């Protein structure tokens, strides 16, 4: 009798355990139906890129009926741009936004976009980026586990300094200028007579305060939102490079997505790119007005002086037939 009771108890326990396992599996199945995509970047939450990413998250959730959601980590919460790219490569992060200047270390042909005075104007840059050349370059990083998805507008980069304006290349002599970890950017500052100093974006404010560098170069919204204008009172709009930001997914994520999920993500990205470019126009003017009101002296030097000094950078690619053809093709885009 006792043996029978034990058997019944064991049977009940096994049934309960079996039910718990089934419930657990069903719960896991329900959770797995929602794909969470983690995106990290280094910009402030008021930046047009972050606001566009919020729209991307909203659109992705709508397009997928809640099956895909975006988790955004701004302000270098998960590391610098370079560190975020490395996290993508090992599959610890799904998406990030980086400047082309940093990306060229991982996808070498991307460095073409960082060449000084490559584009005639903003519309020329959009025609290149949104056309076959831009799309070809987005795929350049796949062998390095990086899948480019789209280009955000990051305007033109210009010099800002602590003690004097940069009205000609001669004004850069003897100055330590912060640049991204970009060979092209370092080469450009060298050609102009300055001393290029790579420093991460998050450390730049303190480096400017402490005199580690005498200045830096970036677009108006980044100069304003970083509060670098509190230290640097001269902004010289030479607009030496039109360097876009690139939205990237790791191939670890991309290869896990089915065709429907890819289409949802690509559409959400496309919507956010259009939205961000609209926001950028407004943000650029607002930034210039704000820094000027804060006491920054804005100058517009003769760009041809800077263009002449950096012309050799483009010419030096003549030996590299593939890169030189790419430069010529970009210049010929209408």
Provide mean pLDDT, rounded.
90
Uncertain residue ranges: 1-5, 7-31
- The number of strands is 11
Radius of gyration: 25 Å
Please estimate the helix content: 40-55%
Total of helices? 13
Structural class: alpha/beta
Q: In angstroms, what separates the terminal alpha carbons?
A: 93 Å
Shape: globular
Write a brief caption for the model.
By secondary structure, the protein is α/β, with parallel strands linked by helices. It contains 13 helices and eleven strands.
Give a written overview of the molecule.
The protein is an alpha/beta fold and 334 residues long. α7 links the parallel β6 (176-179) and β7 (195-198). α2 runs antiparallel to α11 (259-293). 48% of the residues lie in helices and 18% in strands. The protein has 13 helices and eleven strands. Mean pLDDT is 90; it is low at 1-5 and 7-31. The longest helix is centred in the last third of the chain and has 35 residues, at 259-293. The strands form two sheets. The protein has a six-stranded mixed beta sheet, with helices on both faces.
Please specify the SSE layout and strand pairing.
Blueprint lengths: L1 H31 L2 E6 L7 H16 L4 E6 L7 H10 L4 E5 H4 L18 H8 L2 H7 L7 E7 L3 E6 L14 E4 L3 H9 L3 E4 L5 H6 L5 E4 L1 H6 L8 E9 L2 E6 H4 L4 H35 L3 E3 L3 H13 L5 H12 L2
Parallel strand pairs: 1-2, 1-3, 6-7, 6-8, 9-11
Antiparallel strand pairs: 3-10, 4-10, 5-8, 5-9
Characteristic key phrases:
single chain, alpha/beta, 6-stranded mixed beta sheet, 5-stranded mixed beta sheet, 13 helices, 48% helix, globular
